[in-house]
Amino acid sequence: MTRAARVELHTHLEGSVTPDRLILLAEKYGQPGLPAACLTEDGTAYRFKGFHGFLELFKHVTSLLRTPADFHAAARDLGGRLVADGIGYAEVTLSYGVLLMRGIDPLSVQKALAEAAVEAEEADGVVLRWIPDAVRQWGVDKAWRAWEAAATAGRDLGVVGFGLGGDETAGPPADFAGLFTEVKTEGYGVTIHAGEIPGMGAAAVDSIRQAVEDCCADRIGHGLAAADDPLLLATMAARGVFVEMCPGSNLATGGITAWGDHPLRKFLAAGDPCCLNTDDRALFDLDLDGEYIRAEALLALTGAEHDGMQKAARKAAFCASS
Ligand SMILES: [Zn+2]
């Protein structure tokens, strides 16, 4: 498989906002303090500490995405970076939960993203599709509002799935089982961030199990905590649940303490379909090529395994045209 054919399934639009774009947006909205709060001294990279520090940073960045034009610009930036990273198809997550909380109309934003996707495909040759998601710690009712907005935007505007993100320590997937049953009934893909914080112990494993069994997730974001539960790994393999792995992100937020500690090999050994992803490529200063190179160097990922992961990713994509 050629490098240009790579697929990325777990990448957040908000997490792709470059330091340069952040500086421009902060200027536009008269928030001169934000770049200093979010960026390194030279303004070329983001800085934060731990998972909750990351959520704070995410909040700062999203506070500057306000108009459809802002989202359009961010999407075009991302398209360019994906192409430079050798990616031909990406499913990009956007938090509709945050949009609604901030009083921003998701439909206007989604129209701008759909336009950006058309432009990116024509200009850069990269296909962008969209996965709106809900914020788990804000509860089930707000998640339903986010889903209703996603369904309204629909396939015509490039929506291919619906997800659940946010603070995994607050908001077990089982609470959202009815919502995801509806998402599946409507024919959209389901992806749920789960098992991202192994420090949660048994609750992290439960989080994955609930996402798989109660919410019928097609894909799990991260899934780290399943690594030490052979039965759960076997269950996921049997059901064909795909794992969107994000080792660089896990290292940045403290889910693992060294890149080479990522349990990727346990998933491969169990036969779980999976691929690598950047998660928040600008916030973590990552690219997908670098992630695969590190997997080859630090986890002995073979060329055949790499090709197998990309083949699995194409199969797990929610859009048939990938
Ligand atoms: Zn994520």
Task: Based on the model shown, name its key terms.
eight-stranded parallel beta sheet; single chain; 322 residues; 8 strands; binds zinc ion; alpha/beta
Structure in words:
The protein has 322 residues and is an alpha/beta fold. It has a single domain (3-316), classed as Metal-dependent hydrolases (TIM Barrel). It contains 14 helices and 8 strands. Strands 1-2-3-4-5-6-7-8 form an 8-stranded parallel beta sheet. Strand 4, helix 8 and strand 5 form a beta-alpha-beta unit. Helix 4 (68-84) packs parallel to helix 6 and helix 6 packs across helix 7. The two termini are 14 Å apart. The mean pLDDT is 95. The protein binds zinc ion.
Brief sketch in words of this structure:
By secondary structure, this protein is α/β, with parallel strands linked by helices. The protein has helices spanning 19-28, 33-38, 50-62, 68-84, 96-101, 106-124, 140-153, 177-185, 202-213, 230-239, 247-253, 264-270, 288-299, 303-316; strands at residues 6-12, 87-95, 127-135, 161-165, 189-194, 219-222, 242-245, 274-276. It has a single domain (3-316), classed as Metal-dependent hydrolases (TIM Barrel, Alpha-Beta Barrel).
